[in-house]
UniProtKB/TrEMBL annotation:
GO terms assigned for molecular function: antiporter activity; xenobiotic transmembrane transporter activity
One term under GO cellular component: plasma membrane
Alphabetical list of InterPro entries matching this protein: DinF-like, MATE_fam, MdtK-like
Signal peptide positions on this chain: none
Transmembrane region(s): 23-43, 55-78, 99-122, 142-163, 175-200, 206-224, 253-275, 281-302, 322-344, 356-377, 389-412, 418-436
Keywords: Cell membrane, Membrane, Transmembrane, Transmembrane helix, Transport
UniProt keyword Cell membrane present: yes
Principal subcellular localisation of the protein: membrane
Keyword Transcription listed: no
Official protein name in the record: Multidrug transporter MATE
Localization annotation: Cell membrane
Membrane-protein topology: Multi-pass membrane protein
Record-stated family: Belongs to the multi antimicrobial extrusion (MATE) (TC 2.A.66.1) family.
Organism: Actinotalea ferrariae CF5-4
């Protein structure tokens, strides 16, 4: 028989242990998948960096455009995760898969349109972003060779969202790991062995993403067939996806505008700052996606909890994921601060770029606890379907960040100090503004709407 002390503590353990187990069972595989994705950029940067500073800077600018185009469509993953999880929480598996199939069709259409647009506008777009004359040819080559992979990239987003909503984060993990390995091989072979240069890096990325999309698409289609869900798009389902996705598109647009603004600032400072910015942004992406693993767990668990009407359980997920997110950010910050000086040499032999990378990474390390908080709260509100608030908050944070970014571009110089101030504005001020807006929302109950 348990003693008095055990009886008093058992209810606390009974509440927290299942929540922790649920969070970790979703977050750990998601972490592997999300870390694998930024490895595409890291490997491409390491390989292209051996060609010189101008090709690396070209990859920086073109890669920012490509990731912005894909990032604007991340609502394909977010809306499907939340809606599929809500439907499953309400006990309607067939509806969940119907929404997933419609999400795949939306991804194919958007991906095709974006690919055509980037192929046609690449030179003018990159020139408008401030690409120096020696950088422009490399940036155009990468963007045009990678653009055909956009339909695959968006299908990967949509299919991954479906599987996350069904609490399956292992399948996306294995596909992402396989894709990262294949991309690394193709990048080395096409860039350094075949001699295609930056274009080979773009081609390898496009081919890999198309293959990943095929694998994940087959998994979703098989699930739909088991539930006797049709594979053709439904008008109501596509309309639902579009309606749910527009607020998140606006929210994501503000985030991507901030990323583009940071790249524009670096390009205006000079070639050293722009090349260093590519390395720092690649590392930032790796860490941010790692923190986002907890946000993905929160999305799925919050969506399912609210779909089932479990308000108390949803609050428990909120509290616990915030603790995990802030702690993980602090730990990653310590690690990054310790290794920052040795990251630059992995990408370039230019001493000026190496110094700029190290100083900017120390700035990033200081801000990571706040980033962990922000990513988790973002995931909670997305899982709750609170897209309208996130759209408004995103605009407010962009307005707060813009003057600081303009000041850096106007007064800072090319090199380590300039790049560091750019990241003070982005990783410091911008992320702090996001922490305030999402934190205020989470304190209330307006976002906790129950039912499918």
């Amino acid at each position: 028989m348990d003693g008095p002390g055990q009886q008093r503590t058992e209810p606390w353990r009974a509440r927290l242990r299942p929540v922790d187990r649920q969070i970790l069972s979703l977050a750990l595989p998601s972490l592997g998948a999300l870390v694998a994705e930024p490895l595409f950029v890291l490997v491409d940067s390491a390989v292209v960096g051996r060609l010189g500073t101008a090709p690396l800077a070209g990859l920086a600018l073109a890669g920012t455009v490509l990731t912005t185009a894909v990032g604007l469509c991340v609502f394909l993953a977010y809306t499907t995760t939340a809606s599929v999880a809500r439907s499953l929480g309400a006990g309607d598996r067939a509806r969940a898969l119907r929404l997933g199939v419609d999400g795949l069709w939306i991804a194919v259409g958007l991906g095709t349109a974006l690919a055509a647009a980037l192929l046609l506008t690449a030179p003018g777009l990159l020139t408008a972003l401030g690409a120096p004359a020696d950088v422009l040819p490399h940036a155009v080559a990468y963007l045009r060779w990678s653009a055909p992979g956009l339909p695959g990239m968006l299908v990967v987003l949509a299919a991954t969202g479906v599987l996350r909503g069904m609490l399956d984060t292992r399948t996306p993990l294995w596909v992402a790991v396989g894709g990262a390995v294949l991309n690394a091989v193709l990048s080395v072979v096409l860039v350094l062995v075949v001699g295609m240069g930056v274009a080979g890096s773009g081609l390898g990325t496009a081919a890999t993403q198309l293959l990943m999309a095929a694998v994940l698409g087959v998994v979703v289609v098989r699930g739909a067939r088991r539930e006797r869900v049709g594979l053709l798009p439904s008008g109501a389902g596509v309309l639902h996806g579009a309606r749910a996705g527009v607020p998140l598109l606006l929210r994501t647009l503000s985030l991507r505008a901030a990323l583009l603004l940071a790249a524009w600032v670096a390009a205006g400072l000079g070639t050293v700052s722009l090349a260093g910015h590519q390395v720092v942004m690649a590392v930032w992406g790796l860490i941010a996606f790692a923190l986002d693993a907890l946000a993905i767990a929160a999305q799925a668990l919050v969506g399912r909890g609210l779909g089932a009407g479990d308000v108390a359980g949803t609050r428990a997920v909120l509290r616990r994921t915030l603790q995990w997110g802030t702690g993980a950010g602090a730990l990653l910050g310590l690690v990054l601060a310790g290794v920052a000086w040795w990251i630059g040499p992995l990408f370039t032999d230019d001493d000026a770029v190496r110094r700029a990378v190290a100083l900017a990474l120390w700035v990033v390390a200081l801000t990571l606890p706040v980033a962990g908080w922000v990513f988790v709260l973002d995931g909670v509100l997305i899982g709750a379907g609170d897209g309208r608030y996130l759209a408004v908050a995103g605009l407010a944070t962009l307005v707060a960040y813009t003057p600081a970014a303009l000041a850096v571009r106007t007064w800072a110089d090319d090199g380590a100090a300039g790049l560091a101030w750019s990241w003070v504005a982005f990783a410091g001020l911008f992320m702090l503004a996001r922490a305030v807006t999402t934190g205020l929302r989470a304190r209330g109950a307006a976002w906790m709407v129950t039912g499918a």
